[in-house]
Amino acid sequence: MKKKRKGLTLIELLLAVAIIAVINGACLLATDVYNKSIRYAKAKNNVNTLCEAHKMYYIKNGAFTTDANLVTGGYISAADMWSGGAMVDPFGNAFTQTSGPDTMTIQLSPATQAKLGTNITCTIP
What we know:
By secondary structure, this protein is of the alpha+beta class. It contains four helices and five strands, in the order αααββββαβ. Helices cover about 55% and strands about 15% of the residues.
């Protein structure tokens, strides 16, 4: 007569842990992709918002200005992007801005471009 076995064997327990680890890894990967897409959308929105604020200032005053003047002048809210004296993207990097007498280009920092694998640019004529 055989004795009735109670509990799980070590192999069964290790198999259950391995299955849980694989499922957990898949969930973490999906979450990372989702977070990256959210940050991309927010970065695109921030570039567009900053571009529109500069456009409004340029139309009203006939010249480009600093980000600080956009905040103090009420052209843009400091809550979303203002950090330590500069406008920053969702990754915490300052936007790259180049301006001439009649044009200004706003784009993501090189570090953010590397993280997202793309660039988002806005040019104000």
